[in-house]
Amino acid sequence: MKCVRERLWREAARAWGLALEHKAFWAHVDHRVRALADRTLDESTVDGMRKTFARALLGPQVALAAVRGDAALVDLVGEWPFDADVVADARTLAAQPLVDRMKALIGEFGDLLDQRQLDVMARRAPAELVEAARRLDRALPYGRHPGTARLREQAAILMNNCALAMMDQRRPDRLRITALFAEAERLAVDESTKTTVRANFESFEDGSADVDLGSIKKMLARGQFLAVAGLLGQARKTIRDPRKRREIDELLREIRDIRSSGSRYDLSPGRSGFLASTALCLIHTALVALLVGALDGWAPIVMAIGVAVLAFLPCVTIQRRWFLIGPMQWPKEVGALSVLAGLGGLVWAFLVVGVMPVVISVVAFLATWVITWRTSRTIADWWDER
Known about the structure:
It contains 19 helices and no strands. By secondary structure, it is mainly α. The protein folds into 4 domains: 92 residues, no CATH class; 110 residues; 52 residues, no CATH class; 112 residues, no CATH class. The radius of gyration is 37 Å and the shape is rod-shaped. The mean pLDDT is 76.
Protein backbone atom coordinates (compact mmCIF):
# COMPACT_ATOMS: atom_id res chain seq x y z
CA MET A 1 0.00 0.00 0.00
CA LYS A 2 2.82 2.36 0.88
CA CYS A 3 4.62 1.70 -2.42
CA VAL A 4 1.37 2.27 -4.32
CA ARG A 5 0.84 5.59 -2.58
CA GLU A 6 4.36 6.75 -3.39
CA ARG A 7 3.95 5.66 -7.01
CA LEU A 8 0.70 7.62 -7.34
CA TRP A 9 2.24 10.79 -5.88
CA ARG A 10 5.19 10.49 -8.25
CA GLU A 11 2.88 9.99 -11.21
CA ALA A 12 0.84 13.03 -10.18
CA ALA A 13 3.98 15.16 -9.93
CA ARG A 14 5.24 13.93 -13.31
CA ALA A 15 1.87 14.44 -14.99
CA TRP A 16 1.49 17.99 -13.70
CA GLY A 17 5.06 18.73 -14.69
CA LEU A 18 4.31 17.62 -18.28
CA ALA A 19 1.08 19.61 -18.32
CA LEU A 20 2.74 22.82 -17.15
CA GLU A 21 5.35 22.48 -19.87
CA HIS A 22 2.77 21.96 -22.61
CA LYS A 23 1.78 25.05 -24.65
CA ALA A 24 -1.72 23.72 -25.19
CA PHE A 25 -2.31 23.71 -21.41
CA TRP A 26 -1.55 27.39 -21.09
CA ALA A 27 -3.51 28.12 -24.26
CA HIS A 28 -6.50 26.42 -22.64
CA VAL A 29 -6.00 28.46 -19.43
CA ASP A 30 -5.86 31.66 -21.56
CA HIS A 31 -9.02 30.60 -23.36
CA ARG A 32 -10.85 30.00 -20.09
CA VAL A 33 -9.81 33.41 -18.75
CA ARG A 34 -11.17 35.09 -21.89
CA ALA A 35 -14.35 33.04 -21.78
CA LEU A 36 -15.10 34.31 -18.28
CA ALA A 37 -15.30 37.82 -19.71
CA ASP A 38 -14.28 39.24 -16.36
CA ARG A 39 -12.76 42.71 -16.70
CA THR A 40 -10.45 42.03 -13.75
CA LEU A 41 -8.90 39.11 -15.63
CA ASP A 42 -6.45 39.71 -18.48
CA GLU A 43 -3.19 38.35 -19.85
CA SER A 44 -1.33 39.41 -16.68
CA THR A 45 -3.58 37.03 -14.76
CA VAL A 46 -2.26 34.10 -16.76
CA ASP A 47 1.31 35.28 -16.22
CA GLY A 48 0.63 35.47 -12.49
CA MET A 49 -0.79 31.96 -12.52
CA ARG A 50 2.40 30.69 -14.12
CA LYS A 51 4.30 31.92 -11.05
CA THR A 52 1.87 30.70 -8.40
CA PHE A 53 0.68 27.45 -9.94
CA ALA A 54 3.55 25.48 -8.47
CA ARG A 55 2.85 26.59 -4.90
CA ALA A 56 -0.88 26.00 -5.37
CA LEU A 57 -0.28 22.45 -6.59
CA LEU A 58 2.12 21.74 -3.71
CA GLY A 59 -0.27 23.13 -1.10
CA PRO A 60 -2.44 20.01 -0.54
CA GLN A 61 0.57 17.71 -0.27
CA VAL A 62 2.34 20.09 2.11
CA ALA A 63 -0.77 20.40 4.30
CA LEU A 64 -1.34 16.63 4.38
CA ALA A 65 2.29 15.89 5.20
CA ALA A 66 2.31 18.49 7.99
CA VAL A 67 -0.92 17.23 9.58
CA ARG A 68 0.25 13.61 9.55
CA GLY A 69 3.90 14.33 10.31
CA ASP A 70 4.59 12.10 7.32
CA ALA A 71 8.29 12.15 6.49
CA ALA A 72 7.80 10.02 3.36
CA LEU A 73 5.24 12.48 2.00
CA VAL A 74 7.58 15.37 2.73
CA ASP A 75 10.32 13.52 0.85
CA LEU A 76 8.00 13.13 -2.16
CA VAL A 77 7.71 16.90 -2.44
CA GLY A 78 11.11 16.71 -4.08
CA GLU A 79 9.53 14.81 -7.01
CA TRP A 80 7.82 17.93 -8.31
CA PRO A 81 9.67 19.50 -11.27
CA PHE A 82 9.51 23.05 -9.96
CA ASP A 83 12.14 25.65 -9.12
CA ALA A 84 14.50 24.48 -6.39
CA ASP A 85 13.56 27.40 -4.11
CA VAL A 86 9.85 26.62 -4.40
CA VAL A 87 10.39 22.93 -3.62
CA ALA A 88 12.76 23.73 -0.72
CA ASP A 89 10.26 26.12 0.86
CA ALA A 90 7.49 23.53 0.51
CA ARG A 91 9.61 20.81 2.12
CA THR A 92 10.54 23.07 5.02
CA LEU A 93 6.89 24.00 5.61
CA ALA A 94 5.72 20.39 5.39
CA ALA A 95 8.47 19.18 7.76
CA GLN A 96 7.85 21.81 10.45
CA PRO A 97 5.89 19.41 12.72
CA LEU A 98 8.80 16.95 12.52
CA VAL A 99 11.21 19.74 13.50
CA ASP A 100 8.91 20.73 16.37
CA ARG A 101 8.71 17.10 17.55
CA MET A 102 12.49 16.78 17.55
CA LYS A 103 12.91 20.04 19.46
CA ALA A 104 10.25 19.00 21.99
CA LEU A 105 11.99 15.66 22.63
CA ILE A 106 15.36 17.36 23.07
CA GLY A 107 13.82 19.76 25.58
CA GLU A 108 12.02 16.95 27.44
CA PHE A 109 15.11 14.74 27.66
CA GLY A 110 17.23 17.73 28.66
CA ASP A 111 14.86 18.27 31.61
CA LEU A 112 15.05 14.58 32.55
CA LEU A 113 18.84 14.79 32.52
CA ASP A 114 18.79 17.91 34.73
CA GLN A 115 16.39 16.16 37.14
CA ARG A 116 18.68 13.08 37.19
CA GLN A 117 15.90 10.81 35.96
CA LEU A 118 18.56 8.86 34.11
CA ASP A 119 16.83 5.48 33.98
CA VAL A 120 13.74 7.00 32.36
CA MET A 121 15.85 8.86 29.82
CA ALA A 122 18.04 5.83 29.08
CA ARG A 123 14.95 3.71 28.46
CA ARG A 124 13.26 6.18 26.10
CA ALA A 125 15.95 8.24 24.39
CA PRO A 126 17.60 5.61 22.16
CA ALA A 127 14.22 4.73 20.65
CA GLU A 128 12.36 8.05 20.57
CA LEU A 129 15.18 10.45 19.73
CA VAL A 130 16.63 8.16 17.07
CA GLU A 131 13.24 7.60 15.44
CA ALA A 132 12.46 11.34 15.44
CA ALA A 133 15.89 12.05 13.94
CA ARG A 134 15.40 9.36 11.28
CA ARG A 135 12.06 10.80 10.18
CA LEU A 136 13.34 14.36 10.18
CA ASP A 137 16.41 13.33 8.21
CA ARG A 138 14.24 11.75 5.53
CA ALA A 139 12.20 14.93 5.27
CA LEU A 140 15.13 17.34 5.54
CA PRO A 141 18.45 15.48 5.05
CA TYR A 142 21.06 16.80 7.46
CA GLY A 143 23.64 16.94 4.70
CA ARG A 144 21.63 19.72 2.99
CA HIS A 145 19.82 21.26 5.96
CA PRO A 146 21.97 22.75 8.75
CA GLY A 147 18.97 22.90 11.08
CA THR A 148 18.58 19.12 10.99
CA ALA A 149 22.31 18.68 11.57
CA ARG A 150 22.17 20.94 14.66
CA LEU A 151 19.25 18.97 16.13
CA ARG A 152 21.07 15.67 15.57
CA GLU A 153 24.13 17.09 17.32
CA GLN A 154 22.04 18.21 20.29
CA ALA A 155 20.42 14.77 20.54
CA ALA A 156 23.82 13.04 20.35
CA ILE A 157 25.27 15.24 23.09
CA LEU A 158 22.24 14.61 25.32
CA MET A 159 22.59 10.83 25.06
CA ASN A 160 26.35 11.03 25.57
CA ASN A 161 25.85 13.11 28.73
CA CYS A 162 23.18 10.72 30.01
CA ALA A 163 25.55 7.78 29.53
CA LEU A 164 28.32 9.62 31.39
CA ALA A 165 25.94 10.42 34.26
CA MET A 166 24.82 6.77 34.47
CA MET A 167 28.42 5.65 34.77
CA ASP A 168 28.53 7.37 38.18
CA GLN A 169 25.68 5.26 39.53
CA ARG A 170 26.43 2.66 42.17
CA ARG A 171 25.31 -0.14 39.85
CA PRO A 172 25.59 1.23 36.30
CA ASP A 173 23.39 -0.43 33.68
CA ARG A 174 26.04 -1.45 31.15
CA LEU A 175 23.58 -2.41 28.40
CA ARG A 176 21.75 0.93 28.48
CA ILE A 177 24.99 2.89 28.71
CA THR A 178 26.36 1.03 25.70
CA ALA A 179 23.14 1.70 23.76
CA LEU A 180 23.28 5.41 24.59
CA PHE A 181 26.88 5.73 23.44
CA ALA A 182 26.17 3.76 20.24
CA GLU A 183 23.18 5.88 19.24
CA ALA A 184 24.97 9.09 20.20
CA GLU A 185 27.83 8.23 17.84
CA ARG A 186 25.38 7.41 15.02
CA LEU A 187 23.49 10.69 15.44
CA ALA A 188 26.55 12.92 15.77
CA VAL A 189 27.33 14.92 12.64
CA ASP A 190 30.45 16.77 13.69
CA GLU A 191 33.53 14.56 13.59
CA SER A 192 34.84 15.96 16.86
CA THR A 193 31.59 14.97 18.58
CA LYS A 194 31.88 11.45 17.16
CA THR A 195 35.46 11.25 18.43
CA THR A 196 34.45 12.41 21.91
CA VAL A 197 31.59 9.92 22.16
CA ARG A 198 33.81 7.10 20.92
CA ALA A 199 36.51 7.99 23.45
CA ASN A 200 33.95 8.05 26.27
CA PHE A 201 32.65 4.65 25.25
CA GLU A 202 36.14 3.16 25.05
CA SER A 203 37.00 4.51 28.49
CA PHE A 204 33.76 3.01 29.80
CA GLU A 205 34.64 -0.34 28.22
CA ASP A 206 38.03 -0.53 29.92
CA GLY A 207 36.71 1.07 33.10
CA SER A 208 39.14 4.00 33.15
CA ALA A 209 36.33 6.53 33.14
CA ASP A 210 35.08 5.17 36.45
CA VAL A 211 38.11 6.52 38.25
CA ASP A 212 38.00 10.29 38.67
CA LEU A 213 41.26 10.97 40.52
CA GLY A 214 40.31 14.58 41.22
CA SER A 215 37.12 13.58 43.02
CA ILE A 216 38.89 10.74 44.82
CA LYS A 217 41.55 13.05 46.21
CA LYS A 218 38.88 15.45 47.49
CA MET A 219 36.99 12.60 49.15
CA LEU A 220 40.16 11.31 50.78
CA ALA A 221 40.91 14.79 52.09
CA ARG A 222 37.43 14.81 53.67
CA GLY A 223 38.11 11.44 55.32
CA GLN A 224 35.62 9.46 53.20
CA PHE A 225 37.83 6.39 52.93
CA LEU A 226 35.10 3.78 52.63
CA ALA A 227 33.25 5.81 49.98
CA VAL A 228 36.46 5.99 47.92
CA ALA A 229 37.04 2.26 48.39
CA GLY A 230 33.54 1.61 47.04
CA LEU A 231 34.20 3.68 43.91
CA LEU A 232 37.55 2.01 43.35
CA GLY A 233 36.00 -1.42 43.84
CA GLN A 234 33.35 -0.72 41.18
CA ALA A 235 36.02 0.55 38.78
CA ARG A 236 38.25 -2.45 39.39
CA LYS A 237 35.53 -4.83 38.21
CA THR A 238 35.61 -3.41 34.68
CA ILE A 239 39.20 -2.22 34.21
CA ARG A 240 41.32 -4.55 32.12
CA ASP A 241 44.51 -2.52 31.99
CA PRO A 242 46.96 -4.23 34.44
CA ARG A 243 48.72 -0.95 35.19
CA LYS A 244 45.47 0.77 36.20
CA ARG A 245 44.42 -2.21 38.27
CA ARG A 246 47.72 -2.05 40.16
CA GLU A 247 47.17 1.65 40.82
CA ILE A 248 43.72 0.94 42.23
CA ASP A 249 45.06 -1.91 44.35
CA GLU A 250 47.70 0.41 45.78
CA LEU A 251 45.07 3.01 46.67
CA LEU A 252 42.92 0.35 48.31
CA ARG A 253 45.93 -0.85 50.32
CA GLU A 254 46.59 2.70 51.53
CA ILE A 255 42.95 3.13 52.52
CA ARG A 256 43.03 -0.14 54.45
CA ASP A 257 46.21 0.93 56.26
CA ILE A 258 44.70 4.28 57.24
CA ARG A 259 41.55 2.64 58.56
CA SER A 260 43.50 -0.06 60.43
CA SER A 261 45.74 2.50 62.12
CA GLY A 262 42.75 4.45 63.37
CA SER A 263 44.72 7.67 62.92
CA ARG A 264 41.83 9.35 61.10
CA TYR A 265 38.10 9.00 61.59
CA ASP A 266 36.16 7.70 58.62
CA LEU A 267 33.44 10.14 57.54
CA SER A 268 31.94 8.02 54.76
CA PRO A 269 28.14 8.20 55.04
CA GLY A 270 25.99 5.10 55.35
CA ARG A 271 28.64 2.33 55.11
CA SER A 272 28.87 -0.55 57.55
CA GLY A 273 32.69 -0.28 57.87
CA PHE A 274 33.97 -1.74 61.13
CA LEU A 275 30.48 -2.98 61.93
CA ALA A 276 30.95 -5.65 59.24
CA SER A 277 34.34 -6.60 60.71
CA THR A 278 32.90 -6.76 64.21
CA ALA A 279 29.98 -8.87 63.03
CA LEU A 280 32.31 -11.35 61.34
CA CYS A 281 34.42 -11.68 64.49
CA LEU A 282 31.38 -12.16 66.73
CA ILE A 283 29.87 -14.80 64.46
CA HIS A 284 33.24 -16.56 64.27
CA THR A 285 33.71 -16.65 68.04
CA ALA A 286 30.14 -17.93 68.51
CA LEU A 287 30.73 -20.80 66.06
CA VAL A 288 34.11 -21.65 67.58
CA ALA A 289 32.56 -21.63 71.07
CA LEU A 290 29.99 -24.16 69.90
CA LEU A 291 32.79 -26.25 68.40
CA VAL A 292 34.82 -26.09 71.66
CA GLY A 293 31.78 -27.17 73.61
CA ALA A 294 31.23 -30.10 71.27
CA LEU A 295 34.90 -31.21 71.61
CA ASP A 296 34.98 -30.97 75.39
CA GLY A 297 36.84 -34.24 75.76
CA TRP A 298 39.86 -33.17 73.73
CA ALA A 299 43.24 -32.29 75.24
CA PRO A 300 43.43 -28.58 76.21
CA ILE A 301 46.64 -27.99 74.23
CA VAL A 302 45.17 -29.48 71.06
CA MET A 303 42.02 -27.44 71.53
CA ALA A 304 43.99 -24.22 72.08
CA ILE A 305 46.02 -24.75 68.91
CA GLY A 306 42.89 -25.53 66.93
CA VAL A 307 41.09 -22.43 68.20
CA ALA A 308 44.10 -20.22 67.42
CA VAL A 309 44.31 -21.60 63.86
CA LEU A 310 40.61 -21.00 63.34
CA ALA A 311 40.92 -17.46 64.73
CA PHE A 312 43.55 -16.75 62.10
CA LEU A 313 40.94 -17.02 59.30
CA PRO A 314 38.79 -13.99 60.20
CA CYS A 315 41.94 -12.03 61.08
CA VAL A 316 43.06 -12.43 57.47
CA THR A 317 39.60 -12.09 55.96
CA ILE A 318 38.79 -8.66 57.40
CA GLN A 319 42.04 -7.34 55.90
CA ARG A 320 41.34 -8.71 52.42
CA ARG A 321 40.58 -6.35 49.55
CA TRP A 322 37.27 -8.03 48.76
CA PHE A 323 36.09 -7.44 52.32
CA LEU A 324 36.96 -3.72 52.07
CA ILE A 325 35.01 -3.26 48.83
CA GLY A 326 32.35 -5.82 49.75
CA PRO A 327 30.84 -6.22 53.26
CA MET A 328 32.35 -2.95 54.48
CA GLN A 329 30.32 -1.20 51.74
CA TRP A 330 27.03 -2.61 52.97
CA PRO A 331 24.53 -0.09 54.38
CA LYS A 332 25.18 0.82 57.99
CA GLU A 333 21.83 -0.66 58.97
CA VAL A 334 22.86 -4.05 57.59
CA GLY A 335 26.14 -3.83 59.50
CA ALA A 336 24.30 -3.04 62.72
CA LEU A 337 21.91 -5.96 62.23
CA SER A 338 24.89 -8.23 61.53
CA VAL A 339 26.50 -7.17 64.81
CA LEU A 340 23.25 -7.91 66.64
CA ALA A 341 23.17 -11.31 64.95
CA GLY A 342 26.73 -11.97 66.10
CA LEU A 343 25.88 -10.98 69.67
CA GLY A 344 22.79 -13.19 69.50
CA GLY A 345 25.01 -16.03 68.34
CA LEU A 346 27.32 -15.56 71.32
CA VAL A 347 24.37 -15.56 73.73
CA TRP A 348 23.00 -18.69 72.11
CA ALA A 349 26.43 -20.37 72.34
CA PHE A 350 26.59 -19.40 76.04
CA LEU A 351 23.18 -20.99 76.63
CA VAL A 352 24.10 -24.14 74.71
CA VAL A 353 27.69 -24.89 75.81
CA GLY A 354 28.18 -22.66 78.84
CA VAL A 355 30.48 -19.78 79.68
CA MET A 356 33.91 -21.44 79.43
CA PRO A 357 33.85 -22.34 75.70
CA VAL A 358 32.71 -18.77 74.91
CA VAL A 359 35.52 -17.29 77.01
CA ILE A 360 38.08 -19.60 75.37
CA SER A 361 36.85 -18.60 71.90
CA VAL A 362 36.88 -14.85 72.60
CA VAL A 363 40.29 -14.88 74.32
CA ALA A 364 41.82 -17.06 71.60
CA PHE A 365 40.56 -14.73 68.89
CA LEU A 366 41.79 -11.56 70.62
CA ALA A 367 45.18 -13.12 71.37
CA THR A 368 45.57 -14.32 67.81
CA TRP A 369 44.60 -10.89 66.48
CA VAL A 370 47.15 -9.08 68.64
CA ILE A 371 50.00 -11.54 68.13
CA THR A 372 49.59 -12.21 64.43
CA TRP A 373 48.33 -8.80 63.26
CA ARG A 374 51.26 -8.16 60.89
CA THR A 375 51.41 -11.76 59.73
CA SER A 376 47.71 -11.80 58.88
CA ARG A 377 48.18 -8.52 56.99
CA THR A 378 51.00 -10.05 54.95
CA ILE A 379 48.94 -13.13 54.16
CA ALA A 380 45.97 -10.95 53.17
CA ASP A 381 48.22 -9.02 50.73
CA TRP A 382 49.65 -12.23 49.33
CA TRP A 383 46.19 -13.71 48.86
CA ASP A 384 44.95 -10.56 47.08
CA GLU A 385 47.90 -10.55 44.70
CA ARG A 386 47.64 -14.19 43.71
